[in-house]
Write a structure and sequence with these properties.
alpha/beta, Rossmann fold, 5-stranded mixed sheet, 12 helices, 7 strands, 43% helix, globular
Length: 227
Amino acid sequence: MIISHKHKYIFIKTEKTAGTSIEIALSKYCGPKDIITPIVEEGELKRSKLGYRGPQNFKIPFSKYSKCDLMNCIDIKRRLTFYHHNDATFIKRHIDKDIWDSYYKFCFERNPFDKVISWYFWQHKKEPRPTISEFIESGEANLVKGFQLYTTDSIFAVDKVYFFEDLDKSMEDIAEKVGLPEVPQLPKTKANLRKDKRSYRDILSQKDKENIEKIFAREIAYFNYKW
């Protein structure tokens, strides 16, 4: 997750939508006051090697704590921080209203049939793995974070939802919208985890398809995803 005061945007990072690559690419243009949350170790190594800004300013100021936040921090003996998959509701609650209202807020979404397969290989990086059908039927497929991060009570909380399937044009649009000096180039991260590169139509069964349609009914309805 990035809150850029320099370019006045908020990037909400969803899961299995190239979020780490996007976050690394955007961090190149961040200023010293921008909020950049930590990412996985592999991603941080990549970001450091590229010479981009790493995690900074992600501890939430005490002035933004609610009573519940304060009690929780006392209980766990740890400061409240922004996290790379924070949802819109949490972010809005812990930043100034004028920042939330005026900054350009965006995220990415992905075809759920394809996203489930990517999530499957992320959750089960090594053999032996359950079958994809077992994975879906176990309920694990339900846990990938997306819709709940960029909506509040099923209402969109962002200005724009971009699509994983159209990354290049999306990055061009983002660069223009927030005034970046160039179109960010996305580094490859986690690209070797998915072992089966076939189309989801060749991997998922009819029953898998129907189960995914139930789990991701909102995304399919909102974005008109097709099989």
